[in-house]
Amino acid sequence: MTNRAGCLLGVVLMATPLYAHHSFGTFDLNRKVDLVGTIAGIDFVNPHSWLRVNVTAPDGSVTLYRCEMRGATVLRRSGWTPEMFVVGERIMVQGAPDRVDPHACYVNTLVLADGRTLDRYTQHAVVSTTGPSDRRPINVGPAAASSAGLPRMSSGVPNLAGAWAVEQQLMTDPRGRLGTLVPASIATQFAPGAVPKRGIVHRISQDEASVSIEYGQHGFVRTIHLDSERHPEKVAPSRAGHSIGRWDGDVLVVDTVGFLPGMLGLEVAHGPDLHVVERFSLNADGSVLTRQYVAKDSDYFVGEYRGSDITPRSPLPFVSDTCSAELNPVSANRTGDRK
């Protein structure tokens, strides 16, 4: 048995905290850059957002800078919105220069026109209003609560529908220059930059034939088929695999095969024979989702890998933020903000 299997399970199957590896790629954190200019726009996208700033030189020439921030999904969870960055307003940027592009930087601290100072990991109060979404949830139908408070579908099975997220993660250095990511509830216990896990909102939708999991930052949807007892004879390999599910009392048992071979999670290899069985269950009032899993892959580890995780309901609604490969062409090698 090898624990390497556990690294990929959280990404492929459900949100699981992972210890953060924070790398800064082409940004030189040993140097500093200070910019004063006006906001030209913001690209509120994943995996990293970009603030565009016009900087005017003494001779009157204007240079456009691109300043890298955290991804839209985690910024939204931290209470940041695109509306905070008004085109034409003055802004100050403190950060680290790009080693290659002289007009790009990594944001450490922003000072807005109204005087507010925003470190990279500044948390604002989250407004729990429904935001825009690129996807519409499956019609879950009426759900009746049991005497114990467990939400149920009209058929009587537990209703898993809703937004779910593990705890938000913050750098121990609010500027994002040093340290590592820790749960927000204990972030203040560490000295700035101390090196002692991350949180994405997902949405589960449910009807009588399927359960759908929309991943808030990974950009794909996983469908668990409840109307079939067998996998197709030929499964087209995919990142999420092919899942079939059945109810064992109040427990949803899910069998998944047909994974596309490759590198998932923290760059962990797996083969086409990966086979995972999960058991999803809600607590008495439906506020916490528990997942137990067993994984087998004869090509990469011996025996079974077993584990479990819990995910509470999210106070923030699910929002499907745009992912942009064009704006982040080498993002995987540049920065590693774990969300």
Task: Give the gist of this structure.
The chain has helices at 4-12, 72-77, and strands at 33-43, 50-56, 62-68, 90-97, 104-112, 117-119, 143-145, 151-153, 162-165, 169-171, 181-183, 201-206, 210-214, 221-225, 242-248, 251-257, 262-264, 268-270, 275-282, 288-296, 305-312. The chain has 339 residues and is mostly beta strands.
Descriptive report:
The chain is mainly β and 339 residues long. Helix content is 4%, strand content 36%. It has two helices and 21 strands. The radius of gyration is 22 Å and the shape is elongated. 37% of the residues are buried.
Fold topology:
Layout: H1 4-12, E1 33-43, E2 50-56, E3 62-68, H2 72-77, E4 90-97, E5 104-112, E6 117-119, E7 143-145, E8 151-153, E9 162-165, E10 169-171, E11 181-183, E12 201-206, E13 210-214, E14 221-225, E15 242-248, E16 251-257, E17 262-264, E18 268-270, E19 275-282, E20 288-296, E21 305-312
Parallel strand pairs: 3-5, 14-15
Antiparallel strand pairs: 1-2, 1-4, 2-3, 4-5, 5-6, 7-8, 9-12, 10-11, 12-13, 13-14, 15-16, 16-19, 17-18, 19-20, 20-21
Level of helix content? under 10%
Order of helices and strands: HEEEHEEEEEEEEEEEEEEEEEE
Distance between the termini: 28 Å
Number of strands: 21
DSSP strand content:
35-45%
Provide the low-confidence segments as ranges. Answer: 1-23, 127-147, 330-339
Q: Biggest sheet: strands, sense, closure?
A: 9 strands, mixed
Estimate the mean pLDDT confidence: 77
The rough form would be described as elongated
Radius of gyration: 22 Å
Helical stretch tally: 2
Structural class: mainly beta
With strands numbered from the N-terminus, the spatial order across the biggest sheet is: 9-12-13-14-15-16-19-20-21
